[in-house]
Amino acid sequence: MIWQPTGDFLLLLVDVALAGSIGILLLGRVKEPRTLWLLRGYLFLVGLAWMVQRYAPLPLTSKLIDALVLACSLALAILWQGDLRRLMELLGTGRIGVLFADRSGDQLTSGSVSTLTEAAGRLSQARRGALMVLDVGSDLRPEDFLNPGIHLDARLSVDLLLNLFAADTPLHDGAVLVQKNRVVAAGVILPLSRQGPNRFGTRHLAALGLTERFDRCLCVVVSEETGTLSLASQGRLERPITSSRLHDLLTEALAAAGTAPAGRTVALDPPEPRG
């Protein structure tokens, strides 16, 4: 007698295949090792809970595992609130392709990193405030900002950045958005962070606010008061730094994000009070 799969067995196969695909997708999008370990542990608990509920008549053990999964879900929701908010924004705006897209074509070239570093260094020497947003895979859109600013789509150059942040220009108070090695917009108004409002100026809070929401973007900040250079990434700020240090951090951060040749992971320090 030839065995034929039943409807329940086919549904089980589909269920396992879909769940496995979602798990592989999640694991494939995570780059940071500690986050990957947390996600693996959580998925293991979910799989264990499913196995116990389906195949083992252990109601007490099943309840305990379910409670553990719920507690872990709440903890991860707090830890990953920025990522979850970003996911809901992508689902709400219909930009699902961003989750599957290959962002390797969006990488900043070494020439662009040098241009940004040189411009930031010259602005720092002149004590001209500046805020540069580098999109390395977040696919930032106008609706992601409080004000999208003025659309430019101009070639990235030191002279252009210096002119945009000149004190007598109407765009110098906003941020410059750099995507695919081009200056896409200027005069962009970013959402402010709630952390350390008494420690940092508006530009630093704006850099922290944006990088808290989007983990694949960087913000270079030049203080108008002191000329101090800073780099914001994933809601953390490293300051003060030199131009050469900024160049190294940009190169390392881009490599860690998977948008440049592989290199060691950059670890930014937690925010510190302004000295």
Query: Would you report the number of β strands?
Result: 7
Q: How many structural units, i.e. domains?
A: 2
**Alpha-carbon Rg, integer:** 23 Å
Q: Considering DSSP H and I runs of 4 or more, what fraction of the residues is helical?
A: 40-55%
User: Architecture of the largest domain, CATH level 2?
Assistant: 3-Layer(aba) Sandwich
Helices and strands, in N-to-C order?
HHHHHHEEHEEHEEEH
Unreliable spans are 259-275
CATH fold label of the largest domain: YojJ-like (1
| Count, helices | 9
From the helix content, strand content and strand pairing, which structural class follows? alpha+beta
Describe the main β-sheet briefly: 7 strands, mixed
Distance between the termini: 82 Å
Average of the residue pLDDT scores: 80
Under CATH at level 1, the class of the largest domain stands as Alpha Beta
CATH superfamily of the largest domain: DNA integrity scanning protein, DisA, N-terminal domain
How much of the residues is beta strand, in percent? 5-15%
Quickly list its features.
275 residues, alpha+beta, YojJ-like (1, 7-stranded mixed β-sheet, 15% strand, disordered C terminus
